[in-house]
């Protein structure tokens, strides 16, 4: 019986050494969230005002399984704009429990070089968390107001 236990233990050690590392460099500062239908998305988390303000500016792409999540300190009405954002996005506003209160799907980038000419989107409902996904992902995940995202 002893050799069988040893073989089992050695097999477990071998299998655990073959797995991927739990944290890749590009995953630092991120967390996984779960959509209502179970899909998982890795999001960058932004809490500092200057990081929230910068958001997705100057980025050329956003992978379908990635996103950016903004945690606002007090709940409030937070309209977003697309000044110097190069790609269209889906913007989802949620309360602190992850209940979706508003969605701006396929939000276009602002082509203007002047910030004052860029329109604002959403922010008509009280929210504390805002999630940005690649354009079309809200529809792909079947997101709608009233649904809950596991934060």
Describe this structure in words.
With 151 residues, the chain is an alpha+beta fold. The protein has one domain: Protein of unknown function DUF192 (Jelly Rolls, Sandwich), CATH 2.60.120. Helix content is 17%, strand content 32%. It has helices at residues 2-17, 49-54, 137-140; strands spanning 30-34, 40-46, 66-76, 80-81, 89-94, 100-107, 120-121, 127-134. Strand 1 and strand 2 (40-46) form a beta hairpin. The protein is built from 3 helices and 8 strands; from the N terminus they run αββαββββββα. The strands form 2 sheets. The protein has a 6-stranded mixed beta sheet with strand order 1-2-3-8-5-6. It starts with a helix and ends in an 11-residue tail after the last helix.
Full CATH superfamily name: Protein of unknown function DUF192
Main structural class: alpha+beta
- CATH domain class: Mainly Beta
Distance N terminus to C terminus? Answer: 46 Å
> Considering DSSP H and I runs of 4 or more, what fraction of the residues is helical?
10-25%
Please give the order of strands in the largest beta sheet: 1-2-3-8-5-6
CATH architecture: Sandwich
What series of H and E elements makes up the topology? HEEHEEEEEEH
Task: Report the average pLDDT across residues.
Answer: 88
Beta-strand share of residues: 25-35%
CATH topology: Jelly Rolls
Shape: globular
Low-confidence stretches: 3-21
Strand elements, count: 8
How many distinct domains?
1
What characterizes the major β-sheet? 6 strands, mixed
Q: What Rg do the Cα atoms give? A: 20 Å
How many helices? 3
């Amino acid at each position: 019986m002893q050799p069988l236990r040893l073989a089992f233990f050695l097999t477990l050690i071998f299998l655990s050494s073959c797995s991927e590392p739990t944290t890749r460099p590009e995953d630092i500062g991120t967390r996984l969230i779960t959509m209502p239908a179970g899909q998982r998305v890795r999001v960058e988390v932004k809490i500092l005002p200057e990081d929230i303000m910068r958001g997705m500016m100057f980025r050329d792409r956003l992978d379908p399984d990635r996103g950016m999540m903004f945690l606002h300190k007090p709940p409030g009405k937070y309209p977003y704009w697309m000044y110097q954002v190069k790609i269209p996005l889906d913007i989802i506003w949620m309360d602190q429990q992850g209940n979706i209160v508003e969605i701006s799907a396929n939000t276009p980038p602002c082509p203007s070089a002047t910030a004052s000419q860029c329109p604002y989107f959403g922010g008509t409902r009280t929210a504390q968390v805002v999630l940005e996904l690649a354009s079309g992902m809200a529809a792909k995940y079947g997101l709608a107001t009233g649904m809950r995202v596991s934060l």
